[in-house]
Amino acid sequence: MLFNSFQFLFFFVVCGCCFWSPRGTTRKIILLLASYYFYMCWSTRYIWVIWGITLIDYVAGLQIEKADLPARRRLYLGVSLFCNLGLLVLFKYFNFLTGSFRSASHLFGLRFDPPLLAIILPVGLSFHTFQAMSYTIEVYRRRVPAEKNLLEYALYVAFFPQMVAGPIERPYELLPQFHREPRVTFEGVRAGIAQALWGLFKKMVLADNVADFVKLIYDTPRHYNGAALLLATLLFSIQIYCDFPAIPT
Fold first, then answer.
1. 179, 197, 229 — which closes off a domain?
2. I need a labelling partner for 100 at 20 to 30 A (CA). Which of 1, 106, 126, 178 fits?
3. 135 near 156, Cβ under 8 Å?
4. Cβ neighbours of residue 187 closer than 8 Å, sequence gap 6 or more
């Protein structure tokens, strides 16, 4: 589900209507279920990644705060980092690393043919793993208390406006927002709509149109001179910059 699609617009309107009707815990449950649905629109089979990260780091945060011995606190932090980074390496770098080892072994006449994993990279994996790690690191540094409410911590990990492509939120910035009832003002709604429209303009008018030119040059670079390649490189940086403001924050 892309942010600049009618499917997301419909989802956002329905989610907003359901979110503002109830209060308290019911509102948070609706927001969490909406976040899981948003993620599963891409793939249902990888929702366990979100659940696993959530449970591991929730328990790790509690244990880090409760532990008295520095060695035990480091142990629980290490478990959190190992699990998060392990998932990242498994999905994102395992095939690359094994393929590199295989190529290197062939250069030396060795037969090393490890199997490659037939998996695809879960959407937003880097962002929500680093966000989960930022929580346990901040708890370890005693900058934030461990979150006791599993529902609110699950929202911190899976909050759909930023779970796919960031930005990575610090726990002391995002978690307190789940602890209090939101205040709706006309000025806040107006500013939010204006920011969303400006982001969509950057994405759909600037980034997408620039991408067509960049792709044309990069697909056949030998057909163009240095000036065209330099221009494509500069426009590619503009494309990347304008892609990110389309993400609601």
1. 179
2. 126
3. yes
4. none
Kindly state whether residues 131 and 193 are assigned to the same domain: no
Q: What is the mean pLDDT of residues 44-56?
A: 86
pLDDT digits (tens, 9 = 90+) for 73-93: 999 999 999 998 888 887 777
3-state secondary structure 119-185: CCCCCCHHHHHHHHHHHHHHHHCCCCCCCCCHHHHHHHHHCHHHHCCCCCCCHHHHHHHHHCCCCCC
User: Does residue 196 belong to any structural domain of this protein?
Assistant: yes
Burial zone of 105 (CB within 10 Å; 0-12 exposed, 13-18 middle, 19+ buried): middle
**Are residues 66 and 172 part of one domain?**
yes
Q: How many domains does the chain have?
A: 2
- Whether residue 213 lies inside any domain: the answer is yes
Residue ending a domain, choose from 127, 158, 179: 179
pLDDT digits (tens, 9 = 90+) for 144-177: 899 999 999 998 888 887 776 667 778 888 888 8
pTM of the model: 0.74
